Amino acid sequence: MKLSLDWIKDYVQLPDDMDLKRLSYDLTMSTVEVEDAEDLGAAFDKLIVGEIKEVLPHPNADKLRICKTDIGGEIKDIVCGGVNLSNGMKVVVACPGAMVRWHGEGEPVEIKNAKLRGVESFGMICASSEVGLADLFPAAEAEIMDISAFDAPAGTPIADALDLNDIILEIDNKSMTNRPDLWGHYGIARELAALYDLPLKELKPFDPAGLPQLTVEVRDTERCPRYIGSEIQGLSVKPSPYKMQNRIWKVGMRPINALVDVTNYVMLATGQPTHAFDADNISDHIIVRKAEDKEKLLLLNDQDLELTTDDLVIADSESAVGLAGVMGGAKDSVLPKTNRVILEVANFNAAGIRRTALRYENRTEAAARYEKAVDPERCDQAVSMALELFAELYPEMKVVAYSDTYPVKLQKSEIDVPMEWLKRRLGKEMSNDVILNKLGRLGFEVKFTEGNMHITAPTWRSTGDISIKDDIMEEVARMYGYDNFEPTLITTSFEGAINQLDIDLERKIREYLAFRCGMQEIFTYPWMTDEYVNAILQTTEGMFELSSPPSPTERLVKNSLLPNLVKAVSENLRYYSDFAIFEATKVCFDRNYTTPYDEREKLPEMRRNVAGAMTGDYKDIEGLFRRMKGILEPMARYTHMEELTFDKLEKPVWADDVVWMNILLNGKIVGNFALLAKKASMDCGIKNNAIMLFELDIDSLVPYKSRTNKFEHLPEYPMNDYDVSVLFDSSVKWNDIHDVIMSKSGPDSLLRSASFVEEYKGKQVPDGKKSVTIRLVIGSLSKTLTSDEIESCANSVTKRLVKQLGAELRFK
């Protein structure tokens, strides 16, 4: 958004010597991001007023003229091809060194003295398009810019003559998305007044006392909380004053005529859009209503719309005459013969305007402001300013009827802020007087009680911007100045690392499916397509709808991963016949249909799910089922979580009648896997492929705790390997042998470990027996063992085996 510093000074008297860099910095640090501050006058350097004294024919060119031009006490010959040249005419002269665009096209080029068809020419007499003023001074092709109406002597810089010496602030729109009060010059002026402790000019409301009632019917007060209509007579279509045109042009809009310019001027000044309808073309009275399905409306920009019932329109008794909050209709807006208008100053629901503007790709200046949630109280300022401007431009004008439909007034936000909390969060104690001064200049009402501050926000900050005590903390901090806070030490203490087992589990599941199982991970949009929702889930109960969906059929927020997963399968089957994919992300539930996990939580319930799909041939459904089960069954072991079991308790609506199973944890269903039913598959456009699906609730899974590890020194003395071969009955298990060997081991034992080497059955081993070779590791942590000590330990082991398992020592 562009702002004129000269315009801002209408409302707050900034010092003449205000440093521009400092102003931009202060505004950026406190309120909005100033992307650029352009000295507009510098763009017209070396462009001056010239007065044509005489126009002579060119001796060598029929279409050129030689203009003897006064450029400030000096007469210069300038060759020009303008078709509207005349004696005494004041023109724009580009002196050598000036930058202009030839015929208004291409990049700027530097003007130099030149010889044109044999005649020396000083500089150039310019058309408005060549100096960037085409919107402010529209002209026909080949006409030069006529500024004879301006009382400026020859030689005067154009910036001075045409009032172009101004600073244009370019504000980053994203930095004030939550600040609808700043979308006009008055809102920024209020911020600067508070920032520099300067008085702010008050905009007085209009007093409609004694005026007849204008009939306005607002049928949808939720979408249109307030509507002010004023019928004005004694008008005409004529150019607006140059000052008004100049200001509108400086901030990026195009002047049109006085009636339209007033509405645009008011919007740019206050941030409140307004619109004028030709009263003679309004049948009966104004009606604010929802559009009828497929109702037609031709807009001012010739866009022919077919409306939906979600659109709000301004209508009369016959048809729609404007798209509310976006643009007026071509038939009933200001026309060349308009002399009586109905001035609309209204407030519209932000979400509805945004949906409509996006639907028809028509984001006008008005829509850009309405969608930020303009406060309805601002209508008073706008209607007062508009009627005052009309009175200045049309002294004979009269307001003959007036209506203000405002059934439910906007409630101001009220917030309690504990002073101790504010001090702790700011890291600084501020006096009540400082807080009262800073917040008071922003329009806040402040009442102090013992240990508490009660804040009442102004209406222009009560449409969603100010709602919690942290918002008040921000207001105090930014107005005090972030640079004025001293760094303080962080008081938070870190006592130990937090092992987030549930987060690690999700990561392990994704790595398991991708690396061990060879599945491809995909990422889909948060919304679902109606076609796949109807085919897979077969209900929309408990789902959220997007207020501004990307398309009419993609309005539902996903509460299951399966519809998008099947959609991805359908789209990829055009290129591949055999693949496996999965997605792990959050799904969203309406808490009216689920049990809230925290009553204080305002957001919808969100849970983490993982889902996968595998394609195959209908002839091998058993193999496809086993492959999917082979992925899910060992998942718990590889991801270190409690074991999952499988049973048939409750068939999913999307599943085949036979090939399905529930996934259970401790007897509770936490997921499903099954073959996609044939009908659902056909509804999704999948005809010749079998699709095996699973979906699992990750938040229901229980990860195992980390293993307990302890540190042990490496042995300082030799460890000795000692192999023994022992005969056992064939039925004796290795686990039993190992338990007997290690039954006497401990911290003081010389036996460190025992391991299986081999098992032998053959001619040298009796029937029903087996020879098991065992490797014993024998050693001490305090000394080097002798051979006798090693033999003694090994003999003790074999004696236990003989006694407890009936073993026979075969050989060492």
Features:
single chain; 812 residues; alpha+beta; OB fold (Dihydrolipoamide Acetyltransferase, E2P); Phenylalanyl-tRNA Synthetase, Chain B, domain 3; 6 domains; seven-stranded mixed beta sheet; five-stranded antiparallel beta sheet
Under CATH, the topology of the largest domain can be stated as BirA Bifunctional Protein, domain 2
Specify the structural class. Answer: alpha+beta
- Note poorly predicted spans: none
| Main sheet overview | 7 strands, mixed
CATH superfamily of the largest domain: Bira Bifunctional Protein, Domain 2
**Strand count:** 39
Using the 3D structure, state the CATH architecture of the largest domain: 2-Layer Sandwich
Helical residue percent? 10-25%
Distance between the termini: 93 Å
CA radius of gyration is: 41 Å
| Proportion of beta-strand residues | 25-35%
Numbering strands along the chain, what is their spatial order in the largest sheet? 27-30-31-35-34-33-32
The overall pLDDT, averaged over residues, is 91
Q: Regarding CATH, which class of the largest domain? A: Alpha Beta
Shape: elongated
Q: How many domains is the backbone divided into?
A: 6
Count of discrete alpha- or pi-helical segments spanning 4 or more residues: 20
Quick take:
By secondary structure, the protein is α+β, with helices and mostly antiparallel strands. Helix 4 (185-195) packs antiparallel against helix 11 (432-441) and helix 6 runs antiparallel to helix 9.
What is the topology?
Layout: E1 2-4, H1 5-8, H2 20-30, E2 34-39, E3 47-58, E4 61-70, E5 75-80, E6 90-94, E7 99-100, E8 109-110, E9 114-116, E10 119-121, E11 124-125, H3 158-161, E12 167-171, H4 185-195, E13 216-218, E14 226-233, H5 242-250, H6 258-270, E15 275-278, E16 286-290, E17 296-298, E18 304-306, E19 312-315, E20 320-323, E21 327-328, E22 340-347, H7 350-359, H8 365-370, H9 378-393, E23 398-405, E24 414-418, H10 419-426, H11 432-441, E25 445-449, E26 452-456, H12 469-480, H13 501-516, E27 520-521, E28 527-528, H14 530-536, E29 556-557, H15 562-572, E30 580-589, E31 605-616, H16 621-632, H17 635-639, E32 645-647, E33 655-665, E34 668-676, H18 678-683, E35 690-697, E36 719-729, H19 734-741, E37 751-760, E38 769-779, H20 787-805, E39 808-811
Parallel strand pairs: 13-16, 27-30
Antiparallel strand pairs: 1-12, 2-12, 3-4, 3-6, 4-5, 6-11, 7-8, 9-10, 14-22, 14-23, 15-22, 16-19, 17-18, 19-20, 20-21, 24-26, 25-26, 28-29, 30-31, 31-35, 32-33, 33-34, 34-35, 36-38, 36-39, 37-38
Helix pairs in contact: 4-11, 5-6, 6-9, 11-12, 14-15
